[in-house]
Amino acid sequence: MTPDSQSGTTAVNIPFTSWQKLILTLLCCADCMVVLDFSIVNVAVPSIQKALGFTPETIQWLFTGYGIVFGGFLLLGGKLSDLFGRKHIFLGGTALFTFASLLGGFSTTPTMLIAMRCLQGLGAALLTPAALALLMGAFDEGPQRNRALGIWGTVAAAGYSIGVVMGGILTAFFGWRWILFVNVPLGIALFFMVLRLVKEAPLPKQKIKLDILGSVLVTSGLMLLVYALVQASAAGWTSWATWRLFGTSFLLIAGFIVVEMRTEQPLMPLRIFLMPGIAVSNLIITFLSAAMVAMNLILTLYFQQILGYAPLHTGLVFLPHGIMASIAGPWGGKLANRFGPKAVLLAGTLLGTTGLGLLALIQTHDTYWFHVLPATLLISCGVMPAFVTLMILATSGAKPDEHGLVSGILNTTGQLGGAIGLAVMVAVAAGTTAHLKLAGLVNGTDAVLSGYRMALATGAAFLAISFLIGWLGLQRKSGA
User: Which of 52, 213, 358, 428 is the most exposed, fewest CB within 10 Å of its CB?
Assistant: First the structure.
């Protein structure tokens, strides 16, 4: 039981009904499927690269394509669910995600697989906010809903651990295509169970204008920015073709900002960034996500291409990192209550910077247990509580009816930051490797390893920037 500060009475933790347990299970499975689909691909990257002929520069599109489309249409997906009904949009998103997974498993070219990953991202952008809205509607506000949201968050964190292990098992025993095929029976089961079992009350009529132009502009602008980063590694940073791509991408993003300033119901209201803590939190999560998403891919390549690990072995060595992340995440709120969110954020980003800095020193003959595992555990202990405190800092400056918008923007920024950060770090790795090979300074393996080390060092720099933004940007917030 918990005290009610307004009434002075004691609030009882009402147990979930059988129907609520079933709904929570279904929606958590959907959330887990979306999160899992990012990490499950990680372990299979070298196998996909070999089978379809991906280059080191283009393989990252499997993640950036998914992440940019997911982030670019996430807020639009939330508005669609408010307009057409959460259940209908959830079913549509699930069907699209499942269909894209099926076609992706049959891909015969890099272009086809990247296109299906982008389509998966669109399906995820539709089903994720709809699933969260269905969950909010199934549980009463207060301790019961808070418990449900806590389970939802824990399952999302556990989805990463499940994904890396499943990716290793499926790739090792059935082939990389099954990391996509596995979504098909799960998606079909979710679709028909939600169709049959979930009842949604009619939504009140409301006038909602869809900012489709804003979604298209920001998604295409960021896609072109990633393409420019990829091309810069091959064509050179000073070439006219490279700068033309960068210029066009910035024009598209500038067009997005103009649309958001002028439209009646913008996808991302720019006024929200004037509220205390929100702009700073979004900047921080951009760099945090950039470092973490890219680190996972770089380590996957290091394990398999440098240390010679098999896919199953790679999945298993990621497991402690994922388990520690699941344990450390819930501690973020508790530590913030005791020491303040700013202190937890700064300590977390500092630990993460230290861990990634240690990973940037990896060598060809290093051991996992002594050189890699301690660093990844250190990163999990620091970064996961930092992610939790960012939500606290962001929502502390918003009104209660704006919490959904703020959390949606923060999730969107995290997705986009991860995709862009991955593109930057892959470009750094590829550029470093190409330079060393061309100069003939080291052999091929050492050149590749040097590229990975430089990418990890860039990730450590991203986390250091997060620390500085938090330290300087939150300096005047006494409550932080």
Answer: 213
Q: Which two tokens stand for residue 32?
A: 């887990």
**HSE (CB half, 13 Å, CA atoms) of 222?**
29
- pLDDT score recorded for residue 7: 39
What b/e string do you get for 165-194 counting C-beta neighbours within 10 Å, with b at 16 or more?
A: bbbbbbbbeeebbbbbbbbbebbeebbeeb
- Rounded CA-CA distance 411/75 in Å is 9
Angle CA 187–191–196, to nearest 5: 150
User: Considering the chain, what is the average pLDDT of its residues?
Assistant: 83
Residue length of the chain? 480
Token pair of 398, please?
A: 């918003």
Residue with tokens 């998103």: 93
Q: Which tens digit of pLDDT belongs to each residue from 142-164? A: 677 767 776 776 677 677 767 88
CA 155/CA 140 separation, integer angstroms: 20
Mean pLDDT of 407-419: 81
Residues 287/461, Cβ–Cβ less than 8 Å: no
| CA–CA gap between residue 214 and residue 72 (Å, rounded) | 9
Q: Given a cut of 50, is residue 241 above it in pLDDT?
A: yes
**Residue 73, pLDDT above cutoff 90:** no
Helix (H/G/I), strand (E/B), else coil: 3: strand
**Cα(436)–Cα(441) distance, integer angstroms:** 6
Q: State both tokens at 112.
A: 């086809």
Supply the pLDDT for residue 459. 94
For residue 69, count CB atoms less than 10 angstroms from its CB and return exposed for 0-12, middle for 13-18, buried for 19 or more.
Answer: buried
pLDDT tens digits, one per residue of 86-97? 899 999 999 999
Q: Which helix (H) or strand (E) holds 11?
A: strand 10-11
Distances (CA, A) of 152 to 2, 215, 321, 381, 449: 21, 27, 20, 20, 38
> Rg (Cα) of the chain, in Å, rounded?
22
Joined together, the tokens standing for residue 446 give: 């050492």
Top pLDDT among 237 and 32 is at 32
CA 212 to chain CA centroid, Å, is 22
C-alpha torsion angle, residues 442, 447, 449, 452 (rounded to 10): 140
pLDDT confidence of 477, banded at 50, 70, 90? Answer: very low
